[in-house]
Amino acid sequence: MNEALLIILAYLIGSVPTAVWVSKYFFNIDIREYGSGNAGATNTFRVLGAKWGTFVMSIDVLKGLIATSLYILLPYYLTDEWDRTNFMIALGLASVLGHIFPIWANFRGGKGVATLLGMAVAIQPLVALCCIGVFLIVLYLTRFVSLSSILAGISFMVFILFIFNEKETLYRIFAVLVALMVVLTHQKNISRIIKGTESKIPLFKHRDRKKDKK
């Protein structure tokens, strides 16, 4: 099994349209016809609730993790760290491309943030953990999944370039591209946040009830 076949396999793994299949098989709807029209975790949170949103996000992260880890099928990459990192980036990007343009769902997918996170977990677990921390903190404070995703994506670049000072040039370029992609794919969300029309997810009902009483 050579590199090209593994990259194709990574794309096919990324193409698994978790949100679409969940919405169809459990709710008899197409998630892309509701909310923002996006087949990702954020819209699943918005339309189907926190339980299914968390499930979809977890599977989408797992897609990126599994696809990026396919390098283990080629023994050469087990001993060459530089080539391994570059190949993992290629595999991860293929899975993200699959998530955004899934062959199993008429090429209409999500924005790829969760799958990017899975990719980061495979390549740089500590950086990924830091990004997850940023995501959860912002989510707790704002209840905006979109804003949490945007800031986690930007923080990924900050951690790679400045905090951990990653030396691998391709990885540094990738980190910048991730931040740009996350911002560009969330332009509508950013606009709604500014206008005050972006939906919040009901994760903290007890906290919100207490605020309402005040």
What is the fold's blueprint, element by element?
Layout: H1 3-14, H2 18-27, H3 41-48, H4 50-68, H5 81-100, H6 113-123, H7 125-142, H8 145-163, H9 169-185, H10 187-195, H11 205-213
Helix pairs in contact: 1-4, 1-5, 3-4, 4-5, 4-6, 5-6, 6-7, 7-8, 8-9
Tags for this model:
71% helix, 0% strand, mainly alpha, 214 residues
Q: Structural class from helices and strands?
A: mainly alpha
Q: What is the terminal separation in angstroms?
A: 63 Å
Biggest sheet descriptor: none
Number of domains: 1
Beta-strand residue fraction: under 5%
Q: Uncertain spans, ≥5 residues at pLDDT below 50?
A: none
Q: How many distinct helices?
A: 11
Number of strands: 0
Overall mean pLDDT stands at 91
> From the alpha-carbon coordinates, what is the Rg to the nearest angstrom?
18 Å
Percent of residues in helical segments? over 70%
Shape: globular
Q: How would you spell out the order of helices and strands?
A: HHHHHHHHHHH
Structure description:
The chain is mainly α and 214 residues long. The protein has one domain. Helix content is 71%, strand content 0%. It has eleven helices and no strands. The mean pLDDT is 91.
Please give a quick description of this structure.
By secondary structure, the protein is mainly alpha-helical. Helix content is 71%, strand content 0%.
